[in-house]
Amino acid sequence: MNRGYPNVQFDSSVAPANGDPHAIDVVYKIDEGQDVHISRVVLLGAEHTRPSFVRATTDPNVSEGKPLGEGKLLQSESDLYNLGIFDWASVMPSGAPDSQEGQQVLIRVHESKRNTMDIGGGIEVIPRNVIFPWAR
């Protein structure tokens, strides 16, 4: 998947190696193309969360004018999810680039239920009168 790198071109070729019938030469050609920058960031799904709070969380990696990159998109998703107020978060390019150098990015979030609390517990019982075969 070329998520974040729409201009990348990849080509490979295989040819027999000179002088060795059991070897081959493999050549990979990668053309990175032009750098793609973020032209616009669109936020969807924030009903109770202030958009400025979401933007403050994602701006270090994803904001207008910054280069578009897979690592930065994934880091922004993790940062949003780690806040603990969203069930899920998605940060990804939207469609084809707006121009040769601009790409729109969609930030989609789903807010967790408000005013809820999770409580958990457990118990562990170890019988003391059991003789284990390996303990003799």
Topology, please?
Blueprint: E1 9-16, E2 24-31, E3 37-44, H1 51-58, H2 70-81, E4 86-93, E5 102-111
Parallel strand pairs: 3-5
Antiparallel strand pairs: 1-2, 4-5
Structural features, described:
- This protein is an alpha+beta fold and 136 residues long.
- Helix content is 15%, strand content 31%.
- It has a three-stranded mixed beta sheet with strand order 3-5-4. A two-stranded antiparallel ribbon has the order 1-2.
- The chain is flat and about 75 Å long.
- The termini are far apart.
Enumerate how many helices there are, as a single number: 2
Q: Which word captures the global form?
A: flat
Radius of gyration: 26 Å
Helicity range of the residues?
Answer: 10-25%
Number of strands: 5
Question: How large is the share of residues in beta strands?
Answer: 25-35%
Which strand order spans the largest sheet, edge to edge or round the barrel? 3-5-4
- Give the overall pLDDT as a whole number: 84
User: Which regions contain 5 or more consecutive residues with pLDDT less than 50?
Assistant: none
Largest sheet: 3 strands, mixed
- Class based on secondary structure composition and strand pairing: alpha+beta
Task: Looking at this protein, list some descriptive labels.
single chain, 136 residues, alpha+beta, 3-stranded mixed beta sheet, two-stranded antiparallel sheet, 2 helices
